[in-house]
C-alpha cells in the first residue's frame, strides 16, 4: 500500500460546473487510475461471461453443446439451434404477442399516467385529485403476489385471461411509479406557460396535447423504457393470467426447454438468446435515457 | 409527507377554483380501471381469506380459521424464514457490491461509458431467462470446473444440495438487481460537491479514508433508499427461483410468493389468501418503517 488509491470523483462527470472550479485544473490533470480500471475490467467478466456462454452455446451443434465445455468457441458455427428454437417456440407468433403486450403497456402507461398526473397537479387544492395521487401511489406497497390469485379469478370471469388482460395489469402496476415521476416533473414547469396559453383561448384539452404532453416528452421516454422492460421481461403475470399456452409471451415459453428438450442445450440457448436480444438492443439504443432518467427523476 | 410530496403548481392561485370538467375525464377512467384491477382484487382476497372458498362456488365465513392454520403450517413458516433470510442476504450483497462499483465507476478510469453500460446491462434481461442460463452453469460448468481443479465441495451441482442451493439464488438475484442499485448510487456519489474531496485531500485523507468518512455519510440517504427498494423487491422473489431450483430440492428454496401461487393449483384458495394478507401486512409494516426512516426524502 505504498501508493494510496485516489478514489476521488472524475470532474468530467459533473454536468454543471461547480462554482469553485477555478482552482481545479491541477487536480484534473492527474492521470487515469489504472488500478481501478483493471479491477473493473476483471469484474465486468461476471456480466460478460454468462452472456458469452449464452451466445457461444446458441451457435453450437447439438453434439458440441452436449459434450464440449460451456466456454469453448462454437466451431463450426451452426445455426441449427436457432432453426429448431424458432419452430419450437413458434417464435414469430410469440414475438408478436410479446411486442404487442409491451406496446400496449408502454402506450397505455404514458397516456393514462400523463393525463392523470396533469389533472392531479393542476387541481392539487381539490381533495379528490390530491387523494387520488396518494391512492395511486399506495399500489407501490401492494406486491403482485398479494392480489394475484383474485386477479386470476377476475380476469377469467371477464374473459381477459389473455395477453390483453396481462397488458392492462402491466399498465396498472406501472401507474404508481409513472404518476410519481410525471407529477414531480410537472412541478418544475412554471404555471405562467399554461396561463399564457389559456389567455390565447386554449381549452384544457388543447393545453394538454399542445403544451403539457410535449413538455413531458423526456420523462415519457424514461417512463416508457421502464414500462417496456417491466412488461417484456415479466414472467409472473403472463404465466398466471394467460390461460391458453399458445398465447404466452417469450420469457414464459422458455420453460419448455426445462422439461421436454432439456438436453438440446444449443436449441435452448438459441431460444434464450432470441428472448433477451430485443431488450438488449432497446437498452443499447436508449441507455442514455435509462441512466439519466433514473438518476434525475426518481431521486430528488 | 403531504407537504413533502405535494406538487404545489397551483397553490399560489385562488383556492377552491372551479374544476374544469375535462380534468375529471382525464383522471376518473384511470381511477376506475385501477380500482377494478388492483383495489377490488385486494379487497376480495382479504374478504375471502375469512371464508372456506376454494376459488369457485359457494362459501361460508369461517372466521380466523385460515389464519390459525397459516401460523401452524411448518411448510409456510419455512417459506417465510427462507424469504426473509434470502431478502436480507441479497440486500447486503447487492448494496455492498453496487456501492463499491459506483465509487469505482465515478473515479478517473478509462472506458468509463463502456464499463458503465456493461454493469447496467443485466437490468434489461428477463430474470427467468438468465436464471435458466445460470442453472446450466451451476449444474454443468461449475462442477466440471471444480473437478478439473480437484475441489471436492463443488463437484456436485449446488442446485441439488438443499444447504447450498440458496447461494445460487442469491447470486443470480444479485446479478440482476445490482444495476438498479448502482444507478442510484452513481447519482448519489455524483451529488457530492468536488470541493469536499479537495478539502479532504488537503487534510491528507485519501483512498478508503475518503470513502468511509465522506462518500458513505454523504450518500446515507441513497443507501437507505436502495436498501429499502432491494429488500421490498427480494421479498417477492419468484422467477429466479423458478428458473434455478423451482423451490427445491424438496421445499428448501420455496419463497412466500411461490407458496401463494402453488397453493392456487391445490385448491387452497382461501388459505393462500390468508397467507397473502399476512404477507401484505408485513409489506405495509416495512413501508411504514421506511416512511419513518425516510421522512420527506423521497416518495418511495
UniProtKB/TrEMBL annotation, chain A:
Which keywords are on file for this protein? Cell membrane, Membrane, Transmembrane, Transmembrane helix, Transport
- TM annotation in the entry: 34-53, 95-120, 132-152, 164-186, 207-230, 269-286
Q: Which residues form the ABC transmembrane type-1 domain?
A: 95-286
Regarding the membrane, this protein is recorded as: Multi-pass membrane protein
**Which PROSITE patterns does UniProt cross-reference here?**
ABC_TM1 (PS50928)
This one is known as Binding-protein-dependent transport systems inner membrane component
Concerning Pfam families, the annotation shows: BPD_transp_1
Q: What family is it from?
A: Belongs to the binding-protein-dependent transport system permease family.
List where in the cell it is found: Cell membrane
Name any Gene Ontology BP term: transmembrane transport
**InterPro entries, per database record:** MetI-like, MetI-like_sf
GO CC annotations? plasma membrane
From TrEMBL, chain B:
Domain ABC transmembrane type-1 positions: 80-290
* Cited PROSITE patterns: ABC_TM1 (PS50928)
Q: What GO biological process terms are annotated to this protein in UniProt?
A: transmembrane transport
This protein's UniProt keywords: Cell membrane, Membrane, Sugar transport, Transmembrane, Transmembrane helix, Transport
Q: Which InterPro entries match?
A: ABC_transporter_permease, MetI-like, MetI-like_sf
The subcellular localization recorded is: Cell membrane
Stated membrane topology is: Multi-pass membrane protein
Q: Which residues cross the membrane?
A: 22-50, 79-106, 118-139, 164-190, 211-231, 269-289
This protein's GO cellular component annotations are: plasma membrane
Q: Name one Pfam family in it.
A: BPD_transp_1
Q: What is its main location?
A: membrane
Would you identify the family this protein belongs to, as annotated? Belongs to the binding-protein-dependent transport system permease family.
The name this protein goes by in its record: Putative ABC-type sugar transport system,permease component
Output the lineage of the source organism.
Bacteria, Bacillati, Actinomycetota, Actinomycetes, Micrococcales
